[in-house]
Design goal:
The complex is a heterodimer of chains A (265) and B (264). Chain A is mainly α. Chain A contains ten helices and no strands. With 264 residues, chain B is mostly helical. Classes of the chains: A mainly alpha (265), B mainly alpha (264). Chains A and B meet through helix 1, helix 2, helix 3, helix 4 and helix 5 of A and helix 1, helix 2, helix 3, helix 4 and helix 5 of B.
């Protein structure tokens, strides 16, 4: 039994010095954050349990008495998502064509569109909502407008990436045949782009449903208004039933989009 | 000359039908909700006025805004760190290829599916109702949604790429912990890192958004500027938020590429 003393084979060959510096830097940043935010560790780790306690005390059980009154807001919320998905799909498709190198040969135009789209995409949707409510006043149409702007930002980039992925060979073959730009677009680019288009659009619809459910918090209509008022009036149980309704909407949307996706893609 | 079909037979009818259905859904949606177009047109008169007043930049807010940006970033980073730890732990319990207990795995997956389907701002409202305004509420809110997101994506990565390694290591008699630590973590760490960078971007944008409902950070500063009708400050803060997010996107893409292709 003496051969137990064979030397150990190291299982990892990482550079320990570099790992150490990275870990140290991360820890320094974390400690800085804790100090800067003035959070005490106890608060931080007790936060979640005390939230869960509060949740079960106040929000439970959901009060489902006024369930019928929510239906108009639910319809509004879904309607905003549908309308904004439609409009932004069309606009984003044009932008996508303008951004992609496959379909747009003018570099300046590409760069300008890309910059514009990245502004739309990078500002969080709730900030767009707040800004547009500030400019146009409260109302459902402002919510639709905010959703359209954010979705254009998201979809244009995704569409452009999908168009970029279309192999250049086929387009070159078409070009060699002497097809015009629009012939290439309609017979070369779009048929190959359709699966990705369906996929991204459904994805955008899911995001829009989620977003339009909360846009009410800044006064842009939909079911979010109800949550906000009920929580401000301390009617937690009713707020919880509205939240449950939102969860149902979102899960149902995912179910529907997934089944459409399986059919078409 | 013979005519060559470019599209297959019957595809015209199909696409016409599709367009009709889609159009009907759109018109139904427009009719079902009352959009109040008239009121909107009336208000449009004020818009040029508001916009022209917003064409101002107020530099006095910049230092304050920078400090608040650091708050938002710090909140996002702290949450990210805790969330990554929790999600690593949970996702190895939830991935179907390695899960020690099948029912526990199903439970974790279902639980986080429900958590994910509540929008983060709604979590924010609930947390603020229970813990009050402040950074702790922000921390908890972002933590909830970040863990939800990371558990889903981590589990996906493990299930996608782990199968053969798990089998090989199991046949040598390695324990669950050894499979995870020496087999799966080194394998999945690049995929994890890509998700972590995405999650950090989401955290930052969430921590900005949470300012709207009262958690600290740059969002709160923006809300204050909006509520006091301070046009110059509003524009400045929005520009700064946009710059922050653009820079963040750039840095995160760079980091993702460095980790992926290893040219550091």
């Amino acid at each position: 039994m003496n051969n137990k003393t064979i030397h150990k084979i190291p299982l990892d060959q990482r550079d320990s010095k570099r790992t150490f510096t990275v870990v140290a830097a991360i820890f320094a940043m974390l400690i800085f954050s804790v100090v800067y935010l003035k959070i005490s560790f106890i608060d931080m780790f007790m936060g979640l349990p005390s939230f869960v306690m509060f949740f079960f005390e106040k929000f439970f059980p959901p009060n489902a008495e006024n369930l019928k009154q929510y239906i108009p807001s639910v319809v509004d919320t879904l309607g905003y998502a549908v309308i904004s998905t439609y409009i932004s799909t069309i606009i984003a498709f044009i932008f996508g064509i303008l951004i992609s190198e496959n379909t747009n040969k003018f570099k300046t135009l590409r760069v300008i569109t890309r910059g514009f789209v990245s502004i739309l995409r990078n500002i969080p949707f709730i900030i767009w909502g707040a800004l547009l409510v500030y400019i146009f006043g409260i109302g459902g149409i402002v919510g639709v407008l905010a959703l359209i702007l954010v979705t254009i930002g998201f979809l244009s980039k995704s569409y452009a990436e999908s168009i970029d992925e279309i192999s250049g060979d086929k387009l070159e073959a078409l070009r060699a045949n002497g097809s015009s730009y629009f012939q290439i677009l309609f017979h070369g680019v779009i048929p190959q782009f359709v699966p990705a288009w369906i996929n991204w659009t459904l994805f955008a619809f899911e995001i829009n449903v989620r977003a339009s459910a909360v846009l009410g918090l800044v006064g842009a209509g939909g079911i979010g208004v109800l949550i906000d008022t009920n929580i401000n009036l301390f009617k937690y149980e009713e707020a919880f039933s509205i939240i449950a309704v939102i969860v149902m909407i979102i899960l149902l949307t995912e179910l529907v989009t997934n089944s459409i996706r399986k059919r078409f893609v | 000359m013979e005519h060559i079909r470019v599209t297959s037979k019957g595809s015209l009818g199909k696409s016409l039908l599709l367009v009709l259905i889609l159009g009907a859904v759109f018109i139904a949606a427009v009719n079902l909700i009352n959009l109040d177009m008239l009121k909107f047109y009336e208000r449009l008169e004020n818009v040029p006025d508001v916009l022209s007043r917003m064409m101002a930049v107020d530099f006095s807010i910049v230092p304050d805004a920078l400090l608040n940006i650091v708050t938002s970033l710090a909140l996002a980073l702290l949450t990210l760190f805790v969330a990554v730890f929790l999600a690593m732990f949970l996702s190895f319990l939830a991935a179907s290829t390695i899960a020690p207990n099948r029912y526990l795995a199903i439970f974790i997956k279902g639980f986080f599916a429900i958590i994910r389907s509540v929008p983060s701002l709604v979590w924010g409202l609930m947390v603020i109702a229970s813990l009050g305004f402040g950074n702790v509420s922000g921390f908890i809110t972002i933590l909830i949604s970040a863990v939800g997101y990371l558990v889903k994506t981590f589990t996906g990565s493990i299930e996608e790429s782990g199968g053969e390694i798990i089998e090989a290591m199991k046949s040598t008699g390695a324990s669950w912990f050894k499979i995870v630590y020496h087999g799966l973590i080194p394998l999945c760490i690049t995929a994890f890192f890509a998700w972590i960078t995405v999650c950090f971007e989401m955290n930052v944008s969430e921590s900005i958004g949470l300012g709207i409902i009262g958690v600290g950070g740059i969002g709160l500063l923006l809300t204050q500027a909006i509520n006091t009708y301070n046009y110059g400050q509003t524009t400045t803060i929005v520009i700064m938020i946009c710059l922050l997010m653009v820079v963040l996107e750039f840095v995160m893409t760079r980091m993702k590429n460095i980790i992926k292709f290893g040219n550091s």
